[in-house]
Design brief:
The chain has about 425 residues and is an alpha/beta fold. The chain contains 16 helices and 14 strands. Strands 1-11-10-9-12-13 form a six-stranded mixed beta sheet, with helices on both faces. α2 runs antiparallel to α7.
Length: about 425
C-alpha cells in the first residue's frame, strides 16, 4: 500500500505554472525571430542587466579569466574534465560503424557521424554551474563536433571566470556571455553576432527547458533538462541524517526542485522531517532549499520492495539514489531513471560535479523514454546501402515492386520495375514497357 505522508504542489498549480512559462518563452522567442540581435540585447539587459559591446568573449578576455583563478582551481577543473572525457571516450568506443552483406550482392551499413555544430548552455543565474561546462563541452569534443559554442549568463555583473575557464579548457570554439531564453534563441535562430547551430544541449531552469522544447525541430536538442529532481529510495538500513542531506543537498538548486523520499521504513519516514529541519537550521542555502522542500518535497511510505520499484519507475526521477541493503536489486529491476546512484558511498553531487558520468539528465518523467546526455547524443547514426550485382538488384526489385503495388505507390513501383527490367532476366509484372 502506498501512503503519501507529505506532498508537494497540486497538479493544477503545476499546470498553471507551466502555462505561464510557456507563454513567456513563446513571446521572447517570437521577438528574437523577428528582431534578432536587438531583441537578444534588450532581454539580456532586462533580465541580467547585461549589455556589453560584444557578447562573444575575446581571446584576451578568456585569458584574463584563466589567469584570475588559483592553480588549485585549474587543477580541480582538469581533474573533473579528465574523468568526464575518459568515460565519454569509453562510451564512444561502443559506437561502431557497421557494414554487412545481408544477401548475396546486398550490402547495408551505417556510419556514426558527429553533429557539425553544437551550442552548449551553462546555467549561472543562482549558482555558477562550472560543472555543466564539462558535461556539455568536453563530451561534444570527445564526440568530434567541429564547432562548439558555449554560453553562460553573467554572474555578479561579469562573466564568471571559472565557467569561462572550464569552457575554454573543455574545447569551446566560441564563448558568449549571455543566458536565459535569449541565449537559447540566439544560438538556435542566429543573430548578426552568433551563427546558428545545429543542436543545443545543457540543463537550465524551467524557462530554458521550455525554450528548447519550443525550438526542437528547428534545431536538435539533447533532452528536456529542467529543474533538478531527486528521488531517494531507502529502507531501514538508511539513517535520517543521510536521507536529509542527500535530499536537501539537491533541493538547494531552486524552489521548484522536487526532493522525494520513497521508503518502506516507517521509522525513516517519521524521522526525516526533524532531520530536514536540523539541516535547514544551519545550511547557508536554506532559504532556497526550504522553499523547494515545502513546495516539492514528498515522503512516500510503502510496504514492500516491489512497491519501491514500481513507484520509483512511476516517478521516473532525474536522479535516483538507492540507500538500501541491496542496491543492485534496483539496478536489475528499475527501468525509469535518469541516473542511478547505488549505495551510501556515492551520491548525486559526485555525479553532478566530478565522477565522470554526465549530469545533464531527463526531468519531468522523460526518463520513461530517454536517457541523459552522453557522447552518443552528439553523433548521428546514418545508414547507407549498396547493391553490387545485377541478380541482387533484380531480386530486391521484384519484391519491392509487388510491395509498392500493394500500397498503391505507382512511382515507387516503377523505381523497382526499372531495376528488374535492366538487371533481371525476366520482365517485371505491370504495364511498364521493356
Amino acid at each position: 500500500m502506498i501512503r503519501r505522508l507529505k506532498t508537494g504542489l497540486s497538479a493544477e498549480t503545476k499546470a498553471e505554472n507551466t502555462l505561464q512559462v510557456r507563454n513567456t518563452v513563446e513571446g521572447i522567442l517570437g521577438d528574437i525571430a523577428a528582431r534578432g540581435g536587438a531583441a537578444v540585447r534588450e532581454f539580456s539587459q532586462k533580465f541580467d542587466q547585461w549589455s556589453p559591446p560584444m557578447f562573444r568573449l575575446t581571446a584576451d578576455e578568456i585569458a584574463d579569466c584563466v589567469r584570475s583563478l588559483p592553480k588549485s582551481t585549474i587543477e580541480d577543473i582538469q581533474f573533473a574534465q579528465t574523468q568526464i572525457k575518459r568515460f565519454a571516450l569509453a562510451q564512444k568506443d561502443c559506437l561502431k560503424d557497421l557494414e554487412v552483406e545481408t544477401l548475396p550482392g546486398v550490402v547495408l551499413g551505417h556510419r556514426n557521424i558527429p553533429v557539425n555544430s553544437v551550442g552548449c548552455y551553462i546555467p549561472g543565474g543562482r549558482y555558477p554551474m562550472v560543472a555543466s561546462a564539462h558535461m556539455s563541452v568536453v563530451t561534444a569534443k570527445a564526440a568530434g563536433v567541429k564547432r562548439i559554442i558555449a554560453c553562460a549568463p553573467p554572474f555578479g555583473g561579469k562573466p564568471h571566470p571559472a565557467i569561462v575557464t572550464a569552457m575554454h579548457m573543455g574545447g569551446a570554439d566560441e564563448i558568449y556571455a549571455f543566458g536565459g531564453v535569449q541565449a537559447i534563441g540566439a544560438m538556435a535562430l542566429g543573430t548578426d553576432e552568433v551563427a546558428p547551430v545545429d543542436m543545443i544541449v545543457g540543463p537550465g531552469n524551467a524557462y530554458v527547458a521550455e525554450a528548447k522544447r519550443q525550438l526542437f525541430g528547428r534545431v536538435g536538442i539533447d533532452l528536456l533538462a529542467g529543474p533538478t529532481e531527486t528521488l531517494i529510495i531507502a529502507d531501514d538500513s538508511c539513517d535520517a541524517e543521510m536521507a536529509a542531506v542527500d535530499l536537501i543537498g539537491q533541493a538547494e538548486h531552486g524552489p521548484g526542485s522536487p526532493a522525494v523520499l520513497l521508503t518502506n521504513s516507517a521509522r525513516l519516514a517519521a524521522e526525516l522531517p526533524r532531520a530536514v529541519e536540523t539541516l535547514l537550521g544551519w545550511l547557508p542555502t536554506a532559504d532556497v532549499a526550504r522553499k523547494a522542500w515545502e513546495n516539492c518535497g514528498e515522503i512516500i511510505l510503502v510496504d514492500t520492495v516491489e512497491e519501491l520499484v514500481a513507484e520509483g519507475d512511476r516517478i521516473a526521477s532525474e536522479h535516483v539514489q538507492i540507500l538500501t541493503e541491496d542496491p543492485d536489486f534496483f539496478l536489475e529491476h528499475m527501468t525509469n531513471y535518469g541516473a542511478l546512484f547505488l549505495g551510501p558511498r556515492t551520491n548525486v553531487s559526485f555525479g553532478d560535479k566530478v565522477i565522470g558520468t554526465n549530469h545533464t539528465l531527463p526531468t519531468m518523467r522523460a526518463a520513461r523514454y530517454t536517457g541523459g546526455l552522453w557522447v552518443g547524443k552528439f553523433i548521428k547514426t546514418c545508414t547507407y546501402q549498396r547493391v553490387t550485382t545485377d541478380e541482387a538488384s533484380a531480386l530486391i526489385g521484384s519484391y519491392g515492386s509487388r510491395l509498392c503495388e500493394l500500397e498503391g505507390f505507382a512511382g515507387h513501383k516503377e523505381q523497382a520495375d526499372l531495376r528488374v527490367r535492366r538487371y533481371g532476366k525476366a520482365k517485371a509484372t505491370g504495364n511498364a514497357v521493356s
